[in-house]
Amino acid sequence: MRKIILLIVLVCFTVIGCQNKKSSNQRVLSDSSGNINNLSVIIENDLWQGSVGEAIRDVLASPVDGLPQDEPLFSMSQLPPQVFSGFTTHNRTVLKIEKGRAKNFRIARNVFAKPQKVVVISGESNQEIIDLINQNSKEIIKAFKDEELKEKQRRIKLSLYDDKPIQEELGLSLKFPTAYRIAKHEGKFFWIRKDITTGTTNLLLYELPLNSITKNDSLMSRIIKVRDSIGKVHIPGPTEGTYMITEQAYAPFQFETTIDNKSTIETKGNWEVHNAFMAGPFINYVIEDKPNNRLVVIEGFAFAPSVEKREYMFELEAIIKSIEIE
After folding, report:
1. Are residues 131 and 95 in the same domain?
2. What confidence tens digit (pLDDT) does each residue in 198-248 have?
3. Degrees (nearest 5) of the Cα angle 274, 276, 277?
4. CB contact at 8 A, 300 and 283
5. With the CA atoms of 309, 314, 320 and 322 taken in that order, what torsion angle do they form, in degrees rounded to the nearest 10?
6. What's the total number of domains in the chain?
7. Residue 146 belongs to a domain with what CATH number?
8. Which residues of 208-219 are buried (b: 16+ CB within 10 A; e: fewer)?
């Protein structure tokens, strides 16, 4: 009996020892940091100032679709490789350029910190590196944007508004911070807004019959017609007879995407107030909710004159993409 007990004790110590050894071999990563949509570019100074840097800026500093003024997809901070160490490696999104190595493109997670997305591009020549940047531009943008959306949603979850009225009325949940409030609730229509220093950021949420908007040649005009009718009824301007409509001077951008695993039409453009000098950007999603025989429409728009609007619209997009339909 004593031999059996001794054997059990020895086995336990062996298991604990193996676990401790395994734990000690695991690298402890620091928490990542950095402002939303701020990208670290690790590249030699001469490459950054030359054709490789131009190719990077053409892709990652290209204008955000749908904003009234040009604003870059990402704000970039360049660092030469020799100073990329310590806290400088902790940025959440990193693009690393390695010249003089075999041609290669890869996306890695949690290399220097967590959570973190690192894109590494290497090539023997400038042209090889430029070709890889251009060939993989969409994948690079998506990798960084997805990481930043997740981080924005994580921050939003720290202080959530109780969306019970939305759940009860529309059978869906939406994660938005307590800085917002429900400004209007009429039946199955919700207007949610937040006051900012120079204006407001806003969300509209409502439903339509499933076949009221179909994917055909008139899809764009139909979506504009619907949002203009909603603006006329629900979103008044500063004086009587004024209301929000879609600005006609610039054609909106339109894409097919997926939200909550459902087919979705995304429309980005600019709104204005009929008979008043007010305008700004909007992003509109029409989600096909076949199980509930309806379309769910959710839109974000900002009124922020004389300031940059990228981060306001990015927050609205992060909120919208948290939607979960029952």
Report:
1. yes
2. 999 999 999 999 999 988 879 999 999 999 999 999 999 999 999 999 998
3. 120
4. yes
5. -160
6. 2
7. 3.30.379
8. beeeebeeeeeb
